[in-house]
UniProtKB/TrEMBL annotation, chain A:
<keyword id="KW-0813">Transport</keyword>
<dbReference type="GO" id="GO:0015658">
    <property type="term" value="F:branched-chain amino acid transmembrane transporter activity"/>
</dbReference>
<dbReference type="InterPro" id="IPR017871">
    <property type="entry name" value="ABC_transporter-like_CS"/>
</dbReference>
<comment type="similarity">
    <text>Belongs to the ABC transporter superfamily.</text>
</comment>
<dbReference type="Pfam" id="PF00005">
    <property type="entry name" value="ABC_tran"/>
</dbReference>
<keyword id="KW-0547">Nucleotide-binding</keyword>
<keyword id="KW-0067">ATP-binding</keyword>
Automatic annotation (TrEMBL), chain B:
<feature type="transmembrane region" description="Helical">
    <location>
        <begin position="302"/>
        <end position="323"/>
    </location>
</feature>
<dbReference type="GO" id="GO:0015190">
    <property type="term" value="F:L-leucine transmembrane transporter activity"/>
</dbReference>
<comment type="similarity">
    <text>Belongs to the binding-protein-dependent transport system permease family. LivHM subfamily.</text>
</comment>
<keyword id="KW-0812">Transmembrane</keyword>
<dbReference type="GO" id="GO:0042941">
    <property type="term" value="P:D-alanine transmembrane transport"/>
</dbReference>
<dbReference type="GO" id="GO:0015192">
    <property type="term" value="F:L-phenylalanine transmembrane transporter activity"/>
</dbReference>
<keyword id="KW-0029">Amino-acid transport</keyword>
UniProtKB/TrEMBL annotation, chain C:
<feature type="transmembrane region" description="Helical">
    <location>
        <begin position="373"/>
        <end position="391"/>
    </location>
</feature>
<feature type="transmembrane region" description="Helical">
    <location>
        <begin position="305"/>
        <end position="327"/>
    </location>
</feature>
<protein>
    <submittedName>
        <fullName>Branched-chain amino acid transport system permease protein</fullName>
    </submittedName>
</protein>
<feature type="transmembrane region" description="Helical">
    <location>
        <begin position="403"/>
        <end position="420"/>
    </location>
</feature>
<feature type="transmembrane region" description="Helical">
    <location>
        <begin position="104"/>
        <end position="121"/>
    </location>
</feature>
<keyword id="KW-0472">Membrane</keyword>
<feature type="transmembrane region" description="Helical">
    <location>
        <begin position="133"/>
        <end position="153"/>
    </location>
</feature>
Length: 234, 334, 433
């Protein structure tokens, strides 16, 4: 059974539909990557999955259980994690406090998970008493991902984790995503850096105008000349 | 030297008393603002309500504190705090939550809180009448006079019993609040929600719980502040209109959303008030002989008369809005 | 009073059923009051309601048109009342005949000079003085000069109070005071607006609440200017006084004066609402960011509308004080002069002038009638209580019955916000074709 199975999802903001029937399914051990032009509804789809947006039609299931119209904190309880693109840390809280907030629903796990996250993102350990607002963009992204991992999610949604980062950090983040996935967490992420992202993707979804255009393995999409021509800049 | 003691009594002690009360009140305002993003005008009336609860309880059990030698009002304060916290949560459920669920603009919440202000005032006056009453129902208000062991000092330093309780409780509140916000899980979640409510929700923090906790804390602190003020002077149902402006000025001076800024702001406003109404001519008296005549002859060198005390917080408010709207500690949302 | 206009393309003409029904009900209520309470009493109530309607129109353009919440209507009303008093009451010979006016003038000149000196000190940095030093000099200078001026002023005002009572009026026609009252209220509004309108709307509420209390404190304690708690009365009327033509006729004449004022204000406001200026105001209220992006000068428009609202409040307050023929600074209460007006606006329909008029008259009738009704109910409860279980009622029952009104107004505000947030006659959203 796929961990996430979304079928024919319609939705948008204030009566304006942005998603016009999107299908998306990934297995528990896969990395899924959503790419597409600006305004295709990529981030909107993530928000629809995470309950931040009214889904007017269609169905979203987590491990076979319907989840649309559940609130975000109920979804966190059911094992979903979400890292927004912007404003994804609590700036006045220290790094460690940020991470603790991720485990808000599972306070017993805090000590163990802190150790795991620090092992995963070693730079954070040294800065754990520093307010997150003072960190660099790449380090903030680590805090944001670490915060989501603290709840031990089985599915992690990432909204453009590499946006605005230098190439060095970008590769680092992609490597971390693979490692998180290897530890048994399903990943669904939206990415602008389509080539690099598809290279690590088990499944790729190319969206345009709120609908699926291409759906295949990451490698197959990269090899497809149509995809390359229309969406990967030649 | 007598003049200096006079200064100590009228500025240092009086300013600390007023400052403490404003500080505890302003903390509640700033907490509510940082979690729910609106200026809660009914806060001063929640303070009055807390004092009123203490008065009712102290009238019902006038000898509650006799065994340990403290006034009944103080022994019963925790009960009143619980009642006031319950009232604050109840008000939120009944009046603010439906509006929040509707997604109204913050200013509509402000108007609703003014509606709540009137309802509380109406209720309190309906039951207590409009006159002033002492919270010392069966107890005697101790007044300590400390004569300084210095030559030529005849005026004693005067400090009253409720003022001592006030200082102790203020320090306890500040320490307790600090520990709560920096150590406890709920306190950190409150700070997280004040930083970024959407992310707090995405982290699995139940925002309804945090809202309720905020009201409990704000209500409890309001009960303390209202009671201490009423112990120091007397209980009056219309306390709130004299409190509203200073508390908001204090919260804004400290930077809205900063609990410890609000405490600092409370003392700034409290001391500014006492300094402004203090007759500076008193301090010049010892040098009368060596001063030019126009200065020595000036009778009253107070900046404002006590009847214009309310101008002081307003002036501070306007000054801070003009020069530094984020407050001295860089508040959040402007 | 058909409000459908040719430029409301997307809102088709319809019979204004809601308006007709509500105003018919209001007319019935007014007739009912006339039948029960008599013509003189009822006409007085209508004149007061008309004065409140002017206040409510002032608030509806601030809150309804522009989304600015003024929590200090009372202050502007009091300023209007003060001007109405000062300009219309007779000249006080005891004051003007003495040397006191000269001394007062001298103090005022000193005040201007001191202000200029302090202002000059704030510009010292232009002469090469370091900024920190300049600030220090300016602050110290301001404090010292302030003390000097305030002491001089205290001396003169004490003299005035001791020898002449107060400075008295100017004996000018009533209308002059009303106009100056509006101007003065507008001036104070300009000051507050300049400070607060660029910030979150909460700050405007706090600041207006504060300035209202300060204006009241000033008027109450400046005995030399207003006689303070001793109050000034009678104030002359712009129409023949009751002593000349009888209560009902005199009040009816006064009512016609206020009715004409309302009609003029109403006409001008409706014109402005549909004019480009009004559209811009609403655009700013509904979407500030896009209005700014279109190059509108938001803060200037906001300031205009705020000052305009304050001017109306000043005029309404002046008309109210003249009608009461009494200037009592202590009589200005947040409940009667701020929150009552607020209820009128939000119940009637913020942004809808007709709705605001309806709200003003309706709420005022309820307000006036609620006192006697509440007292009656209280007495009934006491009678029943004593009869059934010998309950000893508190003695100051009537003053407590009045407190019930405070509660009811508060409850009304919260209920309207929750269940009828657009009021009984909502503002019609017009789509320009």
């Amino acid at each position: 059974m796929p961990i996430l199975d979304a079928r024919d999802v319609h939705g948008g903001y204030g009566g304006m539909n942005i998603l016009n029937g999107v299908d998306m399914a990934i297995e528990a051990d896969e990395v899924g990557v959503i790419v597409g032009p600006n305004g295709a509804g990529k981030s909107t789809m993530l928000k629809a999955i995470f309950g931040l947006l009214h889904v007017s039609q269609g169905e979203i299931r987590l491990r076979g259980e319907p989840i649309h119209n559940l609130s975000p904190h109920q979804l966190v309880q059911r094992g979903m994690g979400f890292v927004p693109q912007e404003h994804n840390v609590f700036p006045s809280l220290t790094v460690q406090e940020n991470l603790e907030m991720g485990a808000f629903l599972k306070p017993a796990n805090v000590g163990r998970m802190l150790g795991q996250v620090f092992a995963f993102f070693p730079p954070l350990k040294d800065k754990r008493r520093q307010p997150a607002g003072e960190l660099s963009g790449g380090q903030r992204q680590m805090v944001a991902m670490g915060r989501a991992l603290m709840a031990e999610p089985s599915l992690l949604l990432l909204d453009e984790p590499t946006a605005g980062l230098s190439p060095r950090y970008m590769n680092d983040i992609f490597a971390r995503v693979r490692e998180i996935n290897a530890a048994g967490v399903g990943i669904l992420m939206v990415e602008q850096n389509a080539r690099q992202a598809l290279a690590i993707a088990d499944k790729g979804f190319v969206l345009a105008a709120g609908q699926n255009r291409f759906t295949d393995t990451g490698a197959a999409l990269l090899a497809d000349p149509d995809v390359a021509k229309s969406f990967l800049g030649g | 030297m007598n003049e200096l003691v006079f200064f100590l009594n009228n500025v240092v002690i009086a300013g600390s008393v007023t400052g403490s009360i404003y500080a505890i009140g302003a903390v509640g305002v700033t907490l509510v603002f940082s979690i729910m993003r609106f200026a809660h005008f009914a806060h001063a009336d929640i303070m009055t309500f807390g004092a009123f609860m203490v008065m009712l309880l102290a009238t019902a059990f006038p000898t509650a504190g006799a065994a340990i030698g403290v006034p009944a009002a103080l022994v019963l304060l925790p009960v009143a705090m619980a009642l006031t916290a319950a009232l604050a949560v109840g008000i939120d459920r009944a009046f603010y939550k439906p509006l929040r669920a509707h997604g109204v603009k913050p200013i509509v919440m402000v108007i609703a809180s003014l509606g709540v202000t009137l309802m509380l005032q109406g209720l309190i006056r309906l039951f207590s009448g409009t006159g002033g009453q002492s919270l010392y129902v069966d107890d005697r208000k101790e007044i300590f006079r400390l004569t300084l062991p210095l030559e030529g000092v005849r005026v004693p330093v005067v400090i009253t019993e409720p003022q001592l309780y006030l200082f102790v409780l203020t320090i306890a509140c500040v320490v307790g609040l600090h520990l709560f916000l920096s150590r406890s899980r709920l306190g950190k979640a409150m700070r997280a929600m004040s930083d970024n409510p959407d992310l707090a929700q995405a982290s699995g923090i139940n925002t309804h719980t945090i809202v309720a906790v905020t009201w409990v804390i704000a209500g409890g602190l309001a009960a303390i502040a209202g009671t201490l003020l009423s112990l120091d002077v007397t209980f009056k149902p219309d306390l709130s209109f004299f409190l509203l402006l200073p508390i908001f000025a204090a919260a804004i001076v400290g930077g809205v959303g900063h609990p410890f800024g609000a405490i600092a702001g409370g003392f700034v406003v409290g001391f500014a008030e006492t300094l402004a109404v203090f007759n500076w001519g008193v301090l010049l008296r010892p040098f009368r002989d060596s001063l030019p005549e126009w200065l020595a002859g000036a009778g009253n060198l107070a900046f404002v008369g006590t009847e214009y005390k309310i101008v002081v917080p307003f002036f501070i408010l306007v000054a801070i809005l003009v020069w530094r709207p984020t407050g001295i500690f860089k508040g959040k949302v402007i | 009073m058909d409000k459908t206009r040719p430029d409301t393309v997307a809102a088709p003409r319809r019979f204004p059923l809601r308006e007709v029904v509500l105003f018919a009900a209001l007319l019935l209520a007014v007739l009912g009051v006339y039948a029960v309470m008599g013509a003189a009493y009822s006409t007085r109530m209508l004149v007061e309601a008309a004065c409140y309607a002017i206040l409510a129109l002032g608030l509806t353009i601030q809150w309804g048109y522009a989304g600015q919440f003024n929590a200090g209507v009372m202050g502007f009303v009091a300023l209007g009342g003060f001007c109405a008093m000062t300009f219309s009451v007779p000249v006080n010979e005891a004051f003007w005949g003495s040397e006191l006016p000269g001394e007062l003038g001298r103090v005022l000149l000193t005040m201007v000079a001191a202000a200029l000196v302090v202002f000059g000190a704030t510009r010292l940095d232009r002469l090469g003085v370091p900024k920190a030093l300049r600030t220090l000099i300016a602050v110290v200078l301001a404090m010292v000069l302030y003390l000097v001026v305030i002491n001089a002023l205290r001396d003169v005002t004490d003299q005035i109070e001791a020898r002449a009572g107060f400075i008295g009026g100017l004996g000018l026609p009533v209308g002059v005071g009303w106009i100056v009252g509006g101007a003065l209220a507008g001036g104070v509004g300009y000051f507050i607006g300049r400070v607060c309108l660029g910030l979150r709307s909460d700050y405007l509420a706090i600041a207006t609440l504060g300035i209202a209390e300060i204006i009241k404190a000033f008027l109450k304690n400046s005995d030399w200017l207003t006689r303070g708690t001793a109050t000034v009365s009678p104030l002359p009327w712009p129409v023949p006084a009751p002593a000349e033509v009888g209560f009902t006729l005199a009040r009816a004449l006064y009512l016609s004066v206020t009715a004409v004022m309302i009609a003029v204000i109403f006409f001008l406001l409706t014109r402005a609402y549909y004019a480009p200026w009004g559209r811009m105001i609403r655009a700013i209220r509904d979407n500030e960011v896009s209005a700014a992006a279109m190059g509108k000068d938001i803060n200037r428009r906001r300031l205009e509308i705020f000052v305009l609202g304050c001017i109306l409040m000043g005029i309404g307050g002046a008309a109210l004080a003249s009608f009461n023929s009494l200037f009592d600074p202590q009589g200005y209460l947040p409940l009667n002069h701020t929150f009552l007006v607020l209820v009128m606006v939000i119940l009637g329909g913020p942004g809808n002038n007709l709705g605001t008029l309806f709200g003003a008259v309706t709420v005022y009738i309820i307000w006036i009638m609620s006192g006697p009704i509440a007292l009656y109910l209280m007495e009934l409860a006491v009678t029943l209580g004593q009869a059934s279980f010998g309950w000893e009622a508190p003695t100051n029952l009537d003053s407590r019955a009045l407190q019930a009104r405070v509660f009811v107004i508060g409850l009304l505000i919260t209920l309207v916000l929750r269940f009828a947030p657009k009021g009984l006659l909502p503002e019609k959203v017009i789509h320009h074709g």
